[in-house]
Amino acid sequence: xxxxxxxVAMGSTHPNDNGFSPEWVAELWEGxxxxxxxxxxxxxxxxxxxxxxxxxxxxxxxxxxxGTIYRGELTDSKKPSGITLxxxxxxxxSLTRSIRKFKALKSFDVQLAPVSWSRTWSxxxxxxxxxxx
Length: 133
Hints:
mainly beta, two-stranded antiparallel ribbon, 8 strands, 41% strand
């Protein structure tokens, strides 16, 4: 059964503060096969899906979706695009291997929100699993 293992909120950067206006949320669904689902906050826009061919291509599939949504903003330029990405990666996500690639998106404001504490119920062990960093 697939579940979301990471998500990225994307939107227009506030010109003076550290906030942004969310426009899209990209969800990384993992299970038998990974898939990115880009959901717009505007109901007039359509959901977009991107399926990587292998776990090594998960970030590339995200980048393809990002480039489709924000045409012309996906460059190696250090010129600010005015777009913020807030990245949340849950424990066990395959996206963990690609954290450094978010740093290479030089024209975007990027915030990586680490999971510093979590508690999840394990149906396998019948007990709580706590991660406290």
